[in-house]
Amino acid sequence: MMKKETFEIKKEFLLNGQPFNIYSGAVHYFRIAPSEWRDTLEKLKSAGLNTVETYIPWNVHEPQEGQFVFEGRYDIGKFVKLAQSLGLYVILRPSPYICAEWEFGGLPAWLLQYHDMVVRSNTPRFMEKVANYYEALFKVLVPLQITHGGPVLMMQVENEYGSFGNDKAYLRHIKSLMETNGVDVPLFTADGSWQQALKAGSLIEDDVFVTANFGSKSRENLTELRQFILMHHKNWPLMCMEFWDGWFNRWQEDIITRSANSFQTDLTELVKEQASFNLYMFRGGTNFGFFNGCSSRQNVDYPQITSYDYDAVFHEDGRPSEKYCKLQTILNVKESTPKTIDIGAYSQPSLVNQVNLVDVLDQVGEYKESVSPISFEFGSGYGYMFYQTRVAGDNQMEKLQLLDVADRADIYIDRELVASQYQKTLGQPIEANLTPDSLVQILVENAGRVNYGTRLLSPSEQKGIRTGMTVDRHLHSGWKQWAIDLTRLSHLNWQTSANINYGPSLSRFVFDVDRVHATYLDCSQLGKGMVVLNGINLGHYWQAGPTQALYIPKDFLKLGKNELIVFETTEQDVTQVSFTNQQEVKINA
């Protein structure tokens, strides 16, 4: 570590006793590959910024209760030290909940195994789990503080809590846990810039610094923040902790962008007001694996897409947007052209094996029998669950109905797809001709848990078939289920013979690499599913758009032979895939 410095919050931010404006950009280490950290941070500095900010998602650092991960892609310590080596300061947001359009707002799915769990509350069960996590987390973070010779200026207590609750005892408990575990840099909260949100979500009465989040009308929002601070007799600097330079995107909707000119206008206004800021995002990233979050409107869920490009200053793959030059202009730094990103296509992979999911369930799924169907939480809590049961019909049309299911269900009866239900069609009655021994099979997908608002408390965040299925008017009993685990694919016997060709499939491709570089997988000819490359889950694809490609950083590839597995959940036949170096393939025409 370098020589210890000081950071204080007085009338101004004081760095080593001198006035200091924080010009920060958000870079999520967990959304970009480690090989891209340095390049991104160098570009952040060349844009005129002096600080990098990142959330810290609980669910990647404690994927299973009591098992902590701070290595590889999730090595937050390495990321922070790299920033310091480049002369950057750091803001950390290690609150239990982060939102960030991240699965369950960063809360781990295993919390839902506890029936008395109330997240983001001062309840014994939740705070016990937070305390266990913090004990491990702050062993990593405490030495990184500026008070210990590190670059970390301050840390967040809770995130936009004023849009969720107003339990100050909970906020104080989180603050106390941080301090007990060695945090001694200034603490802050970040909320919407209106008075009710600031009042409900802050700890200003406890001298915890207050910041606001917004992306436009800078002068008006700063006036609201200033008014709140003055009402509590504080004389603090103003800071926008999230200046939204773009926005996130959801499946089946158009891509949302923000013009570079509006970005320049509103950020210029903020700088003229002498406010500090954090650009959210400086660089976009990717919701690899099952970690995309979900919006909710009128109790209908709208999962976010795999790409978290965000229309940011730098795109998901590290290429600059027009906002990069605008930012340099605003901050009066010498305009520079960023280094070229090495992105290219590879030769078309060869299909070598295919199997149907129904023939390998015991190889890729954790199995359990039960009287009633059970939710995802008996497995990892993520991905897919395959349910199976036998129904005694009378060789006539009968009505079946799934009760309380999330998020998407593909229903097969006697090996034929009879319905795909999603969003507003979930739970609609199905009429089918049932034999005395009809086979009912249902693939249920967890498309991503809600990441914002009071829906975090909803039972719907337990995924799968939560109540059951009725046949005629009675609840049906006797179920088998497999929690599909895509990490088991490396042990899959691809020579398993197909009994009958139907349902979801797994297709294995191989291709050779003689030079490693980033690329995109073109998914425009696929249906709906996920892709695993060399054991790494790249995330969801869906023909419904708005994106039609998956970004692949060079870290996920290797010299020589590479293996790519497509888990196609529809009955579309997957016979070929291809790579592209074109970012534009992501957006539907």
From TrEMBL:
The Beta-galactosidase galactose-binding domain covers 508-562
Task: Give all residue intervals belonging to the Glycoside hydrolase 35 catalytic domain.
Answer: 12-331
Residue ranges of domain Beta-galactosidase 1-like first all-beta in the record: 378-484
Q: Does the keyword Hydrolase apply?
A: yes
Question: From which domain of life does this come?
Answer: Bacteria
Q: What is this protein called?
A: Beta-galactosidase
Protein family: Belongs to the glycosyl hydrolase 35 family.
- InterPro entries, per this entry? B-gal_1-like, BetaGal1-like_ABD1, BetaGal_gal-bd, Galactose-bd-like_sf, GH, Gly_Hdrlase_35_cat, Glyco_hydro_35_CS, Glycoside_Hdrlase_35
Q: Keywords of this protein's UniProt record, alphabetized? A: Glycosidase, Hydrolase
Q: Which residues form a coiled coil?
A: none
Q: What Pfam families does the annotation carry?
A: BetaGal_ABD_1, BetaGal_gal-bd, Glyco_hydro_35
